[in-house]
Amino acid sequence: MSAITVAKKDFRDAVRSRVLLGLTVLFALFTTGGAFLASWASELFEQGGAGSTLELLIALQTPAGILVPVIALVVSYRSIAGERADGSLQFLLGLPHRRRDVVLGKVLGRTGVVAVSILIGFAVGLLGLFAFVGDVSPVDYAGFTLVTILFGFVYVCLGVGLSATARSTTTAAIAALGLIVLFWVVWGTAAQILLYVIEGQLFVMPVPDWYLAFVSLPPDAAYGSAISAVLGEPQFEMAQAYDLESPPLLARPWFGFVLLACWAVVPVAVGLWRFERVDL
Predict the structure, then answer these.
(1) What is the pLDDT of residue 129?
(2) Residue 272: phi, psi to the nearest 5?
(3) Could you give the CA distance from residue 174 to residue 166 in angstroms, rounded to a whole number?
(4) Please, are residues 207 and 242 in contact by the beta-carbon 8 Å criterion?
(5) 115-to-11, 207, 226, 238 alpha-carbon distances in Å
(6) How would residue 48 be classed by pLDDT, with cut points 50, 70 and 90?
(7) pLDDT tier at 135 (50, 70, 90 boundaries)?
(8) DSSP element (H, E) containing 276
């Protein structure tokens, strides 16, 4: 129960510092603004009424794929490195807490901050959906919200894992920024370079299975696959962009959950292994 104790303290600290309130307002504005933009785009291009729930979720997926990772990393990258820098970590470990309890407690506490802010913010944003979209499917919206929380949990695990291995908050911040650059820039660029080296050209249709599997590996692509699996709609998955009816295993919707689990477990395990051996 020691990890739960650490998590509760972490969550209470976030409430006192108004971090939770700020994130909740941000997510509420995000969903309400997304509903307005989806409705506006539907009327502009289709000459009709407000868009459907599916159209809204498609419109929200990309900005959520940017907003959630950034927020989760900002919330978590200082979780251990920050307390190590200011000396409070030694006090925390002086209590009946093992290092494993601290790492797991930080994961739970920071995930709680992100999850509660998403839940409340998206619930408030639901009012905007009824106002701007009209025909809302609560089941689809709830499914999208839960997968988004899972996505936030993955990036919290990445952030805490980095924080557990870093010797300073500066190092942790650079590592967190490096993750964003890796997943948003380097990964796609590397895929294009490999495609050119192996296939001899940059544009190959249909794309090779290995290429689709490679670009489906990052957590952001796995997030889309998981949404597709929950909603039963192909518009969110990577294979849809390449018009493939039989994608490789790594690009299939249900496998998105496997990839998200790996991106959550491995960084925490590596961070814990390193944290157990470091001299504070």
Answers:
(1) 72
(2) -65, -45
(3) 10
(4) yes
(5) 11, 36, 17, 25
(6) very low
(7) low
(8) helix 255-277
d(CA 116, CA 86): 27
164, amino acid identity: A
User: Which residues touch 60 (CB under 8 Å, ≥6 apart)?
Assistant: 30, 31, 34, 38, 144
Look-up of token digits 């990036």:
155
Beta-carbon contacts of residue 130 (< 8 Å; ≥ 6 apart)? 136
Closest residue by Cα to residue 69 from 155, 149, 148: 155
Phi, psi of 178 (to 5 degrees): -60, -35
The residue among 212, 53, 75 whose CA lies nearest residue 128 is: 53
93 contacts: CB under 8 Å, gap ≥ 6: 99, 102, 280
CA distance 131 to 1: 44
- For the entire predicted model, the pTM comes to 0.90
pLDDT tens digits for range 143-153:
999 999 999 99
User: How many CA atoms within 13 Å lie on the side-chain side of 252?
Assistant: 7
The tens digit of pLDDT for each residue in 76-110 reads 998 888 878 776 776 666 666 678 888 899 999 99
Contact between 126 and 33 under an 8 Å Cβ cutoff? The reply is no
Domain residue spans in the chain? 2-277
